């Protein structure tokens, strides 16, 4: 009896102590807690219970620069800078309304002046237009979107190197803005304006980071499926979707957005900027949105979400388009993957492995499917590999 009472007493004491400690911890780590838990709860509640983003219309549409005719004169206040390197006839037209080539996909790689090696690796692997044409029978135009180097002292030297590179490959599109993280929205606007002016016949437009791997055969196959589907390849915006993402308020974060720039608790849905695809009609709508909206939000994929929301477009998820992490290396993944993020030196070896004909030597039928499902569950559903494809992808 006595022993029992003492034990209860002890348990209560411990409970009280832990509660106290937790409260103290919450006060001390409030910023962390707010960043990791509270802001997400708030954003999710907003996204799933209220889900109205009408405030975007009144807050981001700036009437002063409203240009209904979509005239193409340079308007820097809208993030539209003059071209320094351009290829108006890349898609076969010359930008004066001529139809141009039949282009399936216009693929913009967001690069930076100093990333010569990344661009070369892309040209040698998934970005090889003639490989895509001869081996896959698809017309894909790959161009690199750039600004100017942010360091004025290095700019002239780098610019000379860029001109040489462009003479050799003819695939750089450069505008006169500083190539910085906070100017990514200018780069987004570049892509949609260039696409509208010089390649508006393209069936699809893709935007990708320059450290991404794209499994081109799988992407082409997927886009063909989309074109032959009921929608006929219209009304598509597909990628790794962020739903109900809260603005980051922590000042030391790269993604920090102050309250006066975006006071609301949740962004409209958007796809991760690492890589996403839109159909031509959606690209045209985004282009028109960029003429109306104030590009003050410097996170490009969030700005894309705002543009899309005001045009009534919502993103779709593709489980094999990566938001952040690298895909696991395995033939059962290569069979399905579309993009994988965070590659540099391994781009060439991955391209070799992922497009190797032996990938298809995995036995088909029930046994092969079962084998690959088990492999994918191990690779994607265990907490070991995070941030690549969701566990759901194992079963698709
Ligand atoms: C305002 O926003 C809604 C969606 O939030 C959209 O459907 C509508 O077209 C927008 N109106 C204008 C004038 O842009
Ligand atoms: C691109 O692909 C073509 C056709 O497959 C090939 O002949 C060429 O060597 C490739 N170019 C590069 C830079 O890998
Ligand atoms: C963006 O580029 C413009 C034009 O070069 C420059 O004036 C501005 O400082 C840049 N903004 C940021 C945030 O880097």
From TrEMBL:
Single Gene Ontology BP term?
Answer: protein O-linked glycosylation
Q: Where are the transmembrane segments?
A: 12-30
Instruction: Tell me the compartments it is located in.
Output: Golgi apparatus membrane
Q: One GO cellular component from the entry?
A: Golgi membrane
Q: Which GO molecular function annotations are given, in alphabetical order?
A: lactosylceramide 1,3-N-acetyl-beta-D-glucosaminyltransferase activity
- InterPro entries per the UniProt record, alphabetical: Glyco_trans_31
| Keyword Glycosyltransferase part of the UniProt annotation | yes
Q: Does the entry feature the keyword Glycosyltransferase, yes or no? A: yes
Q: How does it sit in the membrane?
A: Single-pass type II membrane protein
> So what EC number does this one have?
2.4.1.-
Keyword entries, A-Z = Glycoprotein, Glycosyltransferase, Golgi apparatus, Membrane, Signal-anchor, Transferase, Transmembrane, Transmembrane helix
Q: Give the catalysed reaction(s), semicolon-separated.
A: a beta-D-Gal-(1->4)-beta-D-Glc-(1<->1)-Cer(d18:1(4E)) + UDP-N-acetyl-alpha-D-glucosamine = a beta-D-GlcNAc-(1->3)-beta-D-Gal-(1->4)-beta-D-Glc-(1<->1)-Cer(d18:1(4E)) + UDP + H(+); a neolactoside nLc4Cer(d18:1(4E)) + UDP-N-acetyl-alpha-D-glucosamine = a neolactoside IV(3)-beta-GlcNAc-nLc4Cer(d18:1(4E)) + UDP + H(+)
- Please state the pathway this protein functions in, per its UniProt record: Protein modification; protein glycosylation
Family listed: Belongs to the glycosyltransferase 31 family.
Q: What is this protein called?
A: Hexosyltransferase
Q: Which organism is it from?
A: Mastacembelus armatus
């Amino acid at each position: 009896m006595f022993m029992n009472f003492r034990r209860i007493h002890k348990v209560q004491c411990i409970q009280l102590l832990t509660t106290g400690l937790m409260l103290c911890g919450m006060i001390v780590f409030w910023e962390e807690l707010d960043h990791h838990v509270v802001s997400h709860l708030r954003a999710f509640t907003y996204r799933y219970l209220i889900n109205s983003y009408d405030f975007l219309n009144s807050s981001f549409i700036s009437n002063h620069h409203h240009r209904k005719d979509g005239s193409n004169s340079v308007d820097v206040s809208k993030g539209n800078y003059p071209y320094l390197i351009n290829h108006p006839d890349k898609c076969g037209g010359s930008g004066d309304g001529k139809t141009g080539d039949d282009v399936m996909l216009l693929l913009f790689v967001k690069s930076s002046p100093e990333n010569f090696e990344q661009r070369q690796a892309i040209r040698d692997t998934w970005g090889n237009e003639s490989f895509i044409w001869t081996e896959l029978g698809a017309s894909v135009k790959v161009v690199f979107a750039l600004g100017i180097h942010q360091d004025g002292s290095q700019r002239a030297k780098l610019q000379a190197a860029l001109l040489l590179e462009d003479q050799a490959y003819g695939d750089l599109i450069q505008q006169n803005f500083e190539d910085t993280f906070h100017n990514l929205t200018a780069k987004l606007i570049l892509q949609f304006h260039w696409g509208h002016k010089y390649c508006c016949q393209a069936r699809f437009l893709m935007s990708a980071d320059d450290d991404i791997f794209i499994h081109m055969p799988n992407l082409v196959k997927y886009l063909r499926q989309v074109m032959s589907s009921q929608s006929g390849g219209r009304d598509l915006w597909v990628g790794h979707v962020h739903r109900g993402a809260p603005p980051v308020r922590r000042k030391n974060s790269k993604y920090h957005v102050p309250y006066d720039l975006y006071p609301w608790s949740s962004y409209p849905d958007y796809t991760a900027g690492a890589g996403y695809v839109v159909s031509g009609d959606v690209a045209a709508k985004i282009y028109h949105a960029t003429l109306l909206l104030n590009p003050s939000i410097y996170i490009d994929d969030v700005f894309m979400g705002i543009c899309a929301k005001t045009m009534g477009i919502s993103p779709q998820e593709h489980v094999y388009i990566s938001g952040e992490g690298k895909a696991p290396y395995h033939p059962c993944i290569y069979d399905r993957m579309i993009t994988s993020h965070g590659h540099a030196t391994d781009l060439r070896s991955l391209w070799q492995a992922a497009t190797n004909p032996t990938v298809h030597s995995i036995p088909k039928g029930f046994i092969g499917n079962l084998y690959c499902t088990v492999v994918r569950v191990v690779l994607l559903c265990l907490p070991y590999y995070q941030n690549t494809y969701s566990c759901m992808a194992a079963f698709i």
